[in-house]
Design goal:
Length: 412
């Protein structure tokens, strides 16, 4: 599933990270990162001419990109580095066997990803090679380094380093052995077991905590803007981490309620209010999270053109179903084969319904989502006990059966 531009005429991604309202600490970090480099990013005349047309005068990041360097913050061997290691292209080519086909992991909007092994650090890594034909690649490259270098959280993928040699642009991440959430939800290959209920709730709670860090803990706060199943990577024990921060944007600060920007995102995950107005808020991410959570619950894709027209858009299909709890059992992923807690399903659907509310002010804050999902994921489902507790769960879930309707009515 690709990214889109608000006009629908281009699939290229375009974004700006900083604006005049960014706090001073971020601006200092940005300028420190951009000055006096021994690792200059060279650009040809074609890029220069295109850049003049594309870059807004008040886009500080774009103005600084032409002088991009990272030597103040990055060391060659990773020792005493504040941000990330600097690799040569030869090192990364060697790590992937010259980007052999059997090392290929996948391809996204920014380029191809390969598995590699770094001998000097003795570790497996994932290496993303940016598409050299994309004029916006340089900006996304910088945004990714800035965001991940200043973000430290167990539910955000770790950036190990980068390569900015001549025209090459590569990013090196920790290797996530289980791949993306998308690979464990949709079109499972033969022999792969579907995720059980407890694992799905664990993944949702972890992804929410990563988003909470971006919204509430980072200074300045960051809007992810590209939350989707393919960007949630899974490590051992299905530990989830958010990845791919090329669309990340500094959120509104102070009395500002939104950031005005060109609409970018993935169809099916993008909040309707942002798509229509270009006004980006933290609640835009909440909507995207709600779509991902619905995918976890239902096993359906955000957009599935193979289904009947009325069921192709997941949110459009789910919204009328939310209104009657008798529909809930029809919404759950059939691959679970009935192995889920009835009460837990009701609560999960209530959370998802609130996140995908059409009006952004009706959606909960990420801190409330984390609180709810931490509780939900702590209630471990034991299928061996389900026969004895199903009647009790049905009775106790009556307390929750009108939660969606009450939320819509009261506006909370």
């Amino acid at each position: 599933m690709g990214c889109f531009w608000c006009t629908g005429n281009s699939r290229q991604r375009s974004k700006k990270l900083t604006n005049k309202n960014d706090d001073s600490s971020y601006q200092r970090k940005l300028h420190d990162l951009m000055k006096d480099s021994s690792v200059a990013l060279k650009k040809g005349s074609a890029y220069e001419s295109a850049k003049k047309e594309e870059v807004a005068k008040n886009d500080q990041l774009s103005l600084d990109v032409k002088n991009l360097n990272l030597n103040d913050e990055v060391s060659k061997d990773g020792k005493d580095s504040k941000l990330a290691q600097s690799f040569t292209f030869a090192e990364l080519a060697a790590a992937t066997g010259n980007f052999r086909s059997d090392c290929f992991l996948g391809e996204g909007g920014f380029g191809k990803v390969y598995k590699g092994f770094l001998e000097k650090t003795n570790q497996d890594v994932a290496i993303k090679q940016l598409d050299l034909n994309g004029l916006q690649g340089i900006r996304e490259f910088v945004v990714e380094i800035l965001t991940l270098s200043m973000a430290k959280h167990p539910n955000l993928v770790k950036l190990i380093g980068f390569c900015a040699e001549d025209e090459q642009r590569l990013l090196v991440y920790e290797y996530m052995s289980l791949g993306s959430l998308e690979n464990h939800l949709h079109e499972l290959p033969p022999g792969r077991k579907p995720l059980d209920w407890n694992t799905r709730m664990k993944i949702a709670a972890g992804a929410a905590r990563g988003l909470e860090y971006l919204h509430d803990k980072m200074k300045p706060p960051v809007i992810y803007r590209d939350l989707k199943c393919s960007n949630i990577l899974l490590g051992e024990g299905y530990h989830p981490k958010l990845s791919d921060f090329g669309l990340a944007k500094v959120g509104p600060i102070g009395d500002k309620t939104h950031v005005s920007t060109r609409v970018m995102g993935t169809y099916g995950y993008c909040a309707p209010d942002y798509a229509m107005t270009g006004q980006l808020t933290f609640k835009s991410d909440i909507y995207s999270f709600g779509v991902v959570f619905l995918e976890l619950i239902t096993g359906r894709k955000a957009i599935d053109n193979t289904r009947d027209h009325s069921e192709q858009n997941l949110v459009a299909w789910a919204r009328p179903m939310f209104k009657d709890r008798r529909n809930f059992s029809q919404m759950v992923d059939p691959l679970l084969q009935g192995q889920y807690p009835v009460r837990g399903l009701y609560q999960a659907l209530a959370i998802a319904a609130m996140c995908v509310q059409e009006q952004p002010n009706m959606r909960p804050a990420i801190s409330d989502v984390v609180l709810a999902l931490n509780y939900l994921s702590s209630q471990k489902y034991d299928p061996n006990k389900s026969v004895h507790t199903s009647r009790r769960n049905m009775a106790s879930s009556a307390v929750n059966r009108n939660i969606v309707a009450d939320h819509e009515h009261n506006g909370h």
